[in-house]
Structure formats: structure tokens, C-alpha cells
Amino acid sequence: MEKTPQDFQEPAPLKFLRRLVTVLTGVMILGVITIAGLLVMRLSRDRQQIALPAELALPKGAEAAAITAGPGWYAVVTRDSRILIYAPDGTLRQELEVSLP
């Protein structure tokens, strides 16, 4: 008499290993979902907008590359290696040349 696949009994260690792998897969899926959710919540909460003055007059030929703000000032980094410091009302306070090596 031949054994069919329905007659086969799974050994206990193999059954335990199969269940362990299934549980660990579920735990990993939940962990990835939790970490992704925490990242989304954290990154969307800390987003701050810089309140710029209505108008900043850049010198002729200057093109802004980056902008940052501090308490009572704004800085514009231009593509021609200058940093322009502005007052909150939009007037130019200081201009710095940046020399790159």
C-alpha cells in the first residue's frame, strides 16, 4: 500500500518552525507599518514655513540659490557666491562675499 500526500503527517519540529516563521513575518510587517507611520507623523508635524517679507529686492544680476531665516534677519545665498542679509522689512543690511577654494 502506497502513502498518499493526505496520509503524510508533518513532524512536530517542522510544524513549530512553520508557525514561527508565520508569526515572525506578521511581526515584521507590523513593525514596518509602525515605523512608516511614525516617520510620516513626525516629518509632517515638524514642517515650518518661513514667513518672508512681501518683497526682497535682489541686486541686479543676482539669482537666489537658497534662503534661510533667523530671529530678525533673512539670508539669501546667491549663485554668484554672495550672502545677502536682509532686515524683516526687506531692506538689505549686509552683503558678504564667499570665496570657495
From TrEMBL:
| Keywords assigned | Membrane, Transmembrane, Transmembrane helix
Domain of life the protein comes from: Bacteria
Q: Sorted alphabetically, which InterPro entries does this protein's record hold?
A: DUF6476
Per the UniProt record, which residue ranges are transmembrane?
20-40
**The protein, known as:** Uncharacterized protein
What species is this protein from? Mangrovicoccus algicola
